[in-house]
Write a structure and sequence with these properties.
The chain is of the alpha/beta class and 254 residues long. It has seven helices and seven strands; from the N terminus they run H-H-E-E-H-E-H-E-H-E-H-E-E-H. Strand 3, helix 4 and strand 4 form a beta-alpha-beta unit.
Length: 254
């Protein structure tokens, strides 16, 4: 049964990547990014739902979205901030919104997936290189301010080694401070349960219960300074995580 689960996950994933996402992304290449996202985002959302359901055998028990209607466009506007636990965070988030993410450069080298991510607006960064970080920061600023395209970022920098989101003092706040200074709304997002979907070897652990809450946008003008603003954002991420964990934790045996 476990063997069948892993084979099914591979077959479903390859089918979605090669026969659904690949041709759509290929068709969208000639268009500017804003138009390209209108083409590929609905397909990413569909494939993510199929991946979670049929490849991961995961139960998405909680899907809550408190954004105002003006923030639900394609592509969405604003800075989207989430805690990070697993590669499964990516499809789970994509079922709710499709904002191009800042991602590790290594992801570009994943066959097919890396290319599809690049075509869909993902911004690769080498975290160890100052020039790379500066380049992607400038690119992110241009996307939000000039192209009005929302971006997605994980302030923890990488997947948390523990189940709970990192403490506020441990997160990277450069883009959050930028959002405050430029009066850009920030949408906190809380994720729970994705850490348990994959084993340490990357195998599927079926029948896990996962959840996501997209909180109401947080507006810079409602706060006195950037620190108060950043703390409110990350506090909401943690609050949502604890809420989902209290409801789904018992179903996962923790």
């Amino acid at each position: 049964m476990k063997f069948f689960t892993q084979i099914k996950a591979i077959v479903v994933s390859l089918f979605l990547l090669i026969f659904v996402l690949f041709p759509v992304c290929l068709i969208s290449i000639p268009f500017p990014l804003t138009r390209r996202l209108k083409i590929v985002c609905p397909v990413w959302a569909f494939c993510s739902k199929m991946l979670l359901r049929f490849a991961c055998d995961a139960h998405v028990d909680i899907k809550e979205d408190y954004r105002a209607a003006s923030f639900r466009g394609v592509p969405p506007y604003g800075l989207y901030v989430a805690n990070h636990q697993s590669y499964i965070d990516i499809p789970l988030i994509t079922t709710m919104f499709q904002a191009p993410p800042i991602m590790k450069k290594e992801v570009l080298y994943i066959p097919i997936f890396g290319w599809l991510g690049w075509i869909s607006g993902a911004m690769p960064v080498s975290r160890s290189k100052v020039n790379s970080r500066k380049k992607v920061f400038d690119q992110a600023k241009n996307r939000i301010l000039n192209e009005r395209i929302g971006i997605q970022v994980y302030p923890e920098g990488t997947r948390s080694r523990v189940s709970h989101p990192k403490h506020y003092d441990q997160i990277k706040r450069t883009l959050l401070v930028f959002a405050f200074n430029e009066q850009i709304p920030v949408i906190p997002t809380s994720i729970y349960g994705t850490r348990g979907v994959l084993t340490k070897r990357g195998l599927i652990r079926p029948n896990r219960h996962i959840g996501i809450i997209v909180h109401k946008e947080i507006l810079p003008q409602d706060y006195k300074n950037s620190d108060e603003f950043c703390r409110a954002i990350w506090g909401k991420v943690i609050e949502g995580y604890e809420d989902i964990r209290s409801r789904l934790g018992p179903l996962n045996g923790n």
